[in-house]
Amino acid sequence: MEIFHAGTISKDGDILANGGRVLNICATGKTVTEAQRRAYQAVDRIQWPEGFCRRDIGWQAVEREKGGSP
Q: Tens digit of pLDDT for each residue in 11-37?
């Protein structure tokens, strides 16, 4: 798993959000569904009271994997 940050600044030894999409969590798995689950598990471990996480990332790939559309 890898966590990347962008749109951040360093201030007094802390890394702070500076606007936009700040974190990108990347995970691998034997399936797309597993990779998505692992990435969201990592997101859930991040303590960021004012942070916002989209929960719809990867849904199209998961649906294709399950044999549905799109």
A: 999 999 998 889 999 999 999 999 999
- Residue 26 bridge partners (DSSP): 2
**Cβ-contact 9, 18 below 8 angstroms:** yes
DSSP letters of the chain? Answer: -EEEE-SEEEETTEEEE-SS--EEEE---SSHHHHHHHHHHHHHH---TT----S-TTHHHHHHHTT---
> Distance (Å, rounded) from C-alpha 47 to C-alpha 65?
31
pTM for the structure as a whole: 0.80
Q: Report residue 17 as tokens.
A: 């959000």
